[in-house]
Structures are given as structure tokens and as C-alpha cells.
Design goal:
81% helix, mainly alpha, 291 residues, 12 helices
Length: 291
């Protein structure tokens, strides 16, 4: 090393570089994984529509004793294609909110409404009940309730619950600035690399060494917790009753963890490569510096 000052300064900068590299990797992974396309892909790949259908069937069956409405009145008018479409709508709407928008979805299922109309009218006719304003209000309330339940069960990422508790608005402040955070981390890395180069002008290859070590350490820091989480199957211990929500969250966390781990492996490998290059060219640069 040129002198004690450049050595100590290089250590400090390399430590800062570690955190900046981790920050860039983290924001990059979040940018890649936290998208409508990825969430939709998880929903399709892991059969969340089928799981939601089963949960809805169970719900309406359990409620039939209290409401007097058989589950088939609802479920015969609902299929997995319809549920899949509603799931996609809730995901898109959730991301619009994450991006700072203020939107909502309005569910529509003509087959379901016709099924409820028929059941109510047939039942009223069977007991000679007058179809008055009270009858219409009850029918409308039942339809609205059905849509509400379907919307809640199809909201596999619970965007609605997160929004009502104020969590979504807080996440939005971070999510809408991911690009800015990535640019900030990349800019900080560039500034630190230039500073390292200036500190080691006499032996420029030292910049490769410090950058390589920082990348290697950043990669190891990223890989270690990810490997532990995946090896222990940590996410399977989540306690979520509804199968579609459990699957949505566990598979999303696995995607994030796997992506960050592989990114960290890439960063660590890049660091090793830089150290190897430094080891190869070091003798030549040392000799030039002495000359």
C-alpha cells in the first residue's frame, strides 16, 4: 500500500462499498420481483384460483345453515376462470395503489346474480311471500355480500387489508422511489470506486483488490441468511389459514429470497474474479510503482 492513510481510507471506503452493493442488489431484486407480472405468474403457476375456489366452496357451505342458501347457488355460477380473473384484478389494483394511485375494482358475475335471483324468487313463490321492497333489499344485500366475500378471498395478497390498516400507503412511499434508490446506490458505488482509484493512483491495481474484497463480502452477507431461510424451509412455518393466501405469501418470499441469493452469488463471484485478476497483475504493477 502507498501509505497508512491510503490503507485506512481504502478500508473505510471498502466497508461503505459493501453496504452500497447490498443496497443496489436489494433494490434491484425488489424491482424485478415486486411486479404485477411476477405476482400473476405466482398465482397461475401455483394454482391459486383452484385453492380460492375450494376456500369459497367451504365458506358458502358453512354459511348455508345460517343463510339458508345452499352452496351450489353460489358455486354453480363461479368457476376457476372467473376467480383467476378476479385475482388478477386485485393484483393490478393493488399495484396501482402501490404506485400512488387511488382505485378500486367492481366485481360483476351475471350468472351468480341470475342464480341468486332464481333462488330468492323460487323460495318466495314456494311460501307465497310478497316480493316487496324488503324482498328486493334482502336480495341486493345478498348479492353485495357475495361479491364482498369473493373479492376478499380472491385478494390473495391482502392488498385490501393492508390498505385499510395504512400499511399500503407506507409501502407506496418506498415502492415509488425504488428507481431513485437504485440510482442513488449505483451513484454511491461509482463515487466510492473513483475515490478508491484516486487513493491508489501509484498502484492502480489496488482498486481491483478493494473492489473485489467488498463485492465478495457483500455477496457472502447476502447469501448466508438466504441459504439459511431456504435450507430450513422457514417460510413454510407461516401460520395462515386460507390456502391461497398462504401459498401466495410463501411463494413470493421464496422468489425474493432465491433471487437475492443468486444475485449475491453473482456479486461474490465477481469479487473473486477481481481478486484473481489483481493477484495476476499485482507483481507487474508493484515493479512499475518502484521504478
Amino acid at each position: 500500500m502507498k501509505n497508512a492513510f491510503s490503507y485506512v481510507a481504502s478500508i473505510i471506503i471498502s466497508v461503505l462499498l459493501v453496504f452500497c452493493i447490498i443496497g443496489l442488489a436489494g433494490t434491484g431484486v425488489a424491482k424485478y420481483c415486486a411486479t404485477e407480472q411476477q405476482f400473476r405468474s405466482i398465482a397461475s403457476k401455483h394454482g391459486l384460483a383452484d385453492k380460492t375456489y375450494s376456500e369459497l366452496e367451504k365458506y358458502f357451505r358453512e354459511r348455508s345453515s345460517a343463510t339458508g342458501i345452499p352452496e351450489e347457488v353460489y358455486m354453480d355460477a363461479i368457476d376457476t376462470d372467473y376467480i383467476s380473473g378476479v385475482i388478477d384484478q386485485t393484483i393490478d389494483n393493488g399495484f396501482r395503489r402501490l404506485n400512488g394511485g387511488n382505485s378500486s375494482i367492481e366485481l360483476k358475475n351475471e350468472a351468480l346474480e341470475e342464480s341468486l335471483d332464481k333462488f330468492f324468487n323460487d323460495y318466495a313463490d314456494s311460501i307465497n311471500y310478497q316480493k316487496d321492497e324488503k324482498f328486493e333489499k334482502k336480495l341486493t344485500a345478498t348479492k353485495n355480500s357475495a361479491y364482498k366475500v369473493i373479492g376478499e378471498y380472491c385478494d390473495v395478497y391482502k392488498f385490501g387489508a393492508l390498505d385499510s390498516h395504512g400499511v399500503l400507503s407506507k409501502l407506496s412511499k418506498i415502492y415509488t422511489h425504488i428507481d431513485l434508490l437504485m440510482i442513488g446506490a449505483a451513484s454511491a458505488i461509482l463515487i466510492l470506486l473513483v475515490t478508491l482509484l484516486m487513493l491508489n493512483l501509484s498502484v492502480k491495481s489496488e482498486t481491483l483488490y478493494w473492489t473485489g474484497v467488498s463485492s465478495l463480502i457483500a455477496g457472502i452477507i447476502g447469501v448466508a441468511p438466504c441459504a439459511y431461510l431456504l435450507a430450513t424451509d422457514y417460510f413454510s412455518s407461516f401460520s395462515i389459514k386460507q390456502a391461497q393466501i398462504y401459498t401466495a405469501y410463501t411463494e413470493t418470499m421464496k422468489l425474493l429470497t432465491n433471487t437475492f441469493m443468486y444475485t449475491s452469488i453473482g456479486v461474490a463471484s465477481f469479487g473473486v474474479l477481481l481478486v484473481i485478476i489483481y493477484a495476476i497483475i499485482k507483481p507487474k504493477n508493484k515493479a512499475q510503482a518502484k521504478a
